[in-house]
Amino acid sequence: MPALATTGILTFISAWNEFIFALTFITREDLKTIPVATAQLGGASIFEIPYGAIAAATVLGTLPLIALVLFFQRQIIQGLTSGAVKG
């Protein structure tokens, strides 16, 4: 069970952070993922970079991952170390 939980969590994190596939194939604004929407944030002009909005979007995008890892921390450690112990 810990190995399945670890695999599931790591797969979820990989899919959550996926960028190129979402940038290439998603064209509707309401379906864009958080990394794509964050990368496409723009300022009032081409020379303005909205650092505050980008930082806020990044923090909000990582909060679910942090909560997931903290909730399943014991299963992750057990799954990663179960094959490493000889005996």
Summarize the entry for a quick read.
By secondary structure, the chain is mainly α. The protein is built from five helices and no strands. It is elongated, with a radius of gyration of 17 Å.
Task: Kindly give the count of domains.
Answer: 1
* Shape, principal axes of CA atoms: elongated
**What can be said about the biggest beta sheet?**
none
Pairing-aware structural class of the strands and helices?
A: mainly alpha
Give the helix proportion (percent range).
Answer: 55-70%
Can you walk through the features of this model?
It is built from five helices and no strands. With 87 residues, it is mainly α. The chain has one domain (2-81). Helix 1 (2-16) crosses helix 5 (73-81). The radius of gyration is 17 Å and the shape is elongated. The two termini are 20 Å apart. The relative contact order is 0.19. The mean pLDDT is 84.
List the helices and strands and how they pair.
Layout: H1 2-16, H2 20-25, H3 34-39, H4 51-71, H5 73-81
Helix pairs in contact: 1-5
What are the key terms here?
87 residues, mainly alpha, elongated
